[in-house]
Amino acid sequence: MTTLSCGVLSGPICCPAPSSARGVRGAAGSSGASKRSGGRPGNGEREPSSFLSASSASASASDSSTSSSSSGSDITASCSSSGVFRGRFGARASPSALSGAAGRVGRGWTGATFGISRAICPLRCMAPTPGTGAAFTNGRPAAGSSQVDLTSVLSVDTRYKTETHAAASAGEQVVEETQVLFEANEEFRKNALVSSTEKYEEMYKQSVEDPDTFWSEIASQFHWEKKWDVTDGKVHTENFDVRKGPIKVEWFKGGKTNICYNALDRHVEAGRANDVAMFWEGNEPGYDSSVTFGNLLDLVSQVSNYLRSVGVKKGDAVVIYMPMLVELPVAMLACARIGAIHSVVFAGFSADSLAQRILDCKPKVVLTANGVMRGTKFINLKTIVDDALKQAKQEGYTVETSVVFANEVATKKEETAWVEGRDIWWQDVIPSQSTKSEVEWVDAEDPLFLLYTSGSTGKPKGVLHSTGGYMVYTATTFKHAFDYRPGEVYWCTADCGWITGHSYLTYGPLLNGATVVNFEGVPTYPDAGRCWEIVDKYNVNIFYTAPTAIRALMREGDKPVKKHSRKSLRVLGSVGEPINPAAWKWYYEVVGDSRCPISDTWWQTETGGFMITPMPGGWPLKPGSATFPFFGVQPAIVDENGKELHGECSGYLCVKASWPSTFRTLFGDHPRYETTYFAPFKGFYFSGDGCHRDKDGYYWLTGRVDDVINVSGHRIGSAEVESALVHHPLCAEAAVVGYDHEVKGQGIYAFVTLVEGVEYSDKLRKDLIAKVRSQIGPFAAPDIIHWAPGLPKTRSGKIMRRILRKIAANQIDELGDVSTLADPGVVEQLIELRDK
Ligand code: WTA
């Protein structure tokens, strides 16, 4: 059992050892952690453009289950002859075409190509020919460009390999494109919020040409105690160009509002006090509860009153380290109600990581629980918090109050360690508070929360979001990307410890008055059918999860899914990493019974909300593509010189202008904000992701191009892992890279050099992994430790990660030029020690 407590899963699921390394996403060139070479990395940003040099971004080679081609050509024939292909979430789908198209996993579906008549492609697609009446604007089809027959476009070999723009990386990226279009049926489209490409184009055009009017109209639907300032018709100001001065973004400044009021009071005042706001499903089946909007408001008010009573004021930080109880979103909303800044730390992080975050944001109060069961595993959260608070104290910061929720199902109060004077039971102080709590009206630009995320150094980044723009944007993206209809039940499997739990389990849905499901457990406990049992239990209409969960469940076969009806499902969602076509297909076909569109949403902690996402009903989907930009989002794919590329291309994914939920800074470190995100490509926000745009303007995310590894949708900085490894007294040096992992998307592959004279041993391997678990958290544990007598370095001492990635991926014959290494002999040694 490997703990996989990830962005969208809240607990451990079974992961196999990687069957084979299949290439690695990401590219970087930087030094690993070394005691010899001057200690830990992370004492300062790696050079901002290091990922631009000597980098290779090799993505996954073929997944054997997706690369068959013979049945693909059969399908082509059958579909071409029928002329029209729609997925079965289109009533006009041809079932025979579909069953042909979506044959069993691993039998050629991915390779299928279809002739698609122009009649069914609402997107106006033209090959981009800059300067000849450009058909693309920022890679999206421009309104007014003429429609072309997609047959020729789509009947090319679909899983093709494309060299990235020569300048984009020294390596190559493989884009797994599945040029199969799935379109929602007419019934679905008729009722969809965005029911056609024309409607999208019209709205998109307005959103980028006149963002102030576009977003003001939407913002007006919320409650503002005082309306925002309008200067020269503008409701936002921004500078995205470091050459023009400090980076700054503001939306709706001067406006006074409160996100908690908009998420709860507004609905209660509209007569919805008795509607269910949240179904809570415990780890143990049968252990559940539901809270109405009225209940939720009462609870939030009580917690906010308590926080006030212990001196928490507007602008103060509160750290929340809790499992997925109702009390977790309640605590977040309570902070928001009084203008305090919440900083949720995923309750899978270790004491060291928690201490690091506490020391950074200096909270007045920590809210936690004594323990939690995840599957069959008990996690003693209280001892982790105690340890973190002790560490913080030793380093000079004392947290005065620690409120502990007694989670009686997981552990007993009597068995909980206690620090008198600091620790207080939640149940002793919250229920006695008044259920009336005055709202603190805050400026739209006042901070709402801090959320730490991994970067390319050992020090996590405190991503700071402000209130007004975040509120407007998360609510709007939720509504459109899931085509949410009032009254629907929505389940997001994310933990509130990650951005998805903030924006799409708490704020986005509640702002829309949606009923959300909050699940404490793991998808495979007590069995692999748990998710679908929950879907049936609450009649879930919209289900949002991560590819890693989909792949883990897919391995268990169709039976656990088919045992349950799932007929309530209407829309499916995916987030966290690129979804491979085989998983997409299984999700679509088996989970969604070929009826539900899949919204593959690309976004980040930094963006706060969806950036590139389907709007089901708006246009056809291509498995593996996040499709098109959301309203107001202006993506740009650039080459290594920061030159924007047009039309079909591959390169670095940037954004040209602000959107309302742009993060405003990195807490306490605005220079790092500018250096990391705005300095690499002048005039743009740089996402850290690679991206391909196809002939039809669809966006395909290809993974991180910096030193961040995406494990089960978790961002883990390779430098953080390296730093943890060299903390072990016997580890002299470490270099960590990602490699393709069957379930997790990417796994962690660590090359470790031991101090002189120390022997390799299995015990040492375990100790090193334990070190990472205790320094970061179990989810960051390396999957593979590769003993390295030496690391491949240039003469200037820089580790050539490109070579390490190839070795990790077992692509020994693709090592490329090693002659520039100080000692080319180390490569052979490393190859020899692979799998030892
Ligand atoms: C990756 C999670 C491809 C990407 C919301 C991004 C994705 C990082 C997708 C952000 C997607 C997220 N397709 N890649 N649909 N969604 N990513 O900050 O590399 O935890 O930069 O936010 O996850 O991770 P974060």
TrEMBL record:
<dbReference type="InterPro" id="IPR011904">
    <property type="entry name" value="Ac_CoA_lig"/>
</dbReference>
<dbReference type="Pfam" id="PF00501">
    <property type="entry name" value="AMP-binding"/>
</dbReference>
<dbReference type="InterPro" id="IPR025110">
    <property type="entry name" value="AMP-bd_C"/>
</dbReference>
<dbReference type="GO" id="GO:0016208">
    <property type="term" value="F:AMP binding"/>
</dbReference>
<dbReference type="InterPro" id="IPR045851">
    <property type="entry name" value="AMP-bd_C_sf"/>
</dbReference>
<feature type="domain" description="Acetyl-coenzyme A synthetase N-terminal">
    <location>
        <begin position="200"/>
        <end position="263"/>
    </location>
</feature>
<dbReference type="GO" id="GO:0003987">
    <property type="term" value="F:acetate-CoA ligase activity"/>
</dbReference>
<dbReference type="GO" id="GO:0005524">
    <property type="term" value="F:ATP binding"/>
</dbReference>
<feature type="compositionally biased region" description="Low complexity">
    <location>
        <begin position="19"/>
        <end position="36"/>
    </location>
</feature>
<dbReference type="InterPro" id="IPR042099">
    <property type="entry name" value="ANL_N_sf"/>
</dbReference>
<feature type="domain" description="AMP-dependent synthetase/ligase">
    <location>
        <begin position="271"/>
        <end position="657"/>
    </location>
</feature>
<keyword id="KW-0436">Ligase</keyword>
<comment type="similarity">
    <text>Belongs to the ATP-dependent AMP-binding enzyme family.</text>
</comment>
<dbReference type="GO" id="GO:0019427">
    <property type="term" value="P:acetyl-CoA biosynthetic process from acetate"/>
</dbReference>
<keyword id="KW-0547">Nucleotide-binding</keyword>
<dbReference type="InterPro" id="IPR032387">
    <property type="entry name" value="ACAS_N"/>
</dbReference>
<feature type="region of interest" description="Disordered">
    <location>
        <begin position="16"/>
        <end position="75"/>
    </location>
</feature>
<dbReference type="InterPro" id="IPR000873">
    <property type="entry name" value="AMP-dep_synth/lig_dom"/>
</dbReference>
<dbReference type="Pfam" id="PF13193">
    <property type="entry name" value="AMP-binding_C"/>
</dbReference>
<protein>
    <recommendedName>
        <fullName>acetate--CoA ligase</fullName>
        <ecNumber>6.2.1.1</ecNumber>
    </recommendedName>
</protein>
<feature type="domain" description="AMP-binding enzyme C-terminal">
    <location>
        <begin position="720"/>
        <end position="798"/>
    </location>
</feature>
<dbReference type="InterPro" id="IPR020845">
    <property type="entry name" value="AMP-binding_CS"/>
</dbReference>
<dbReference type="Pfam" id="PF16177">
    <property type="entry name" value="ACAS_N"/>
</dbReference>
<keyword id="KW-0067">ATP-binding</keyword>
<feature type="compositionally biased region" description="Low complexity">
    <location>
        <begin position="49"/>
        <end position="75"/>
    </location>
</feature>
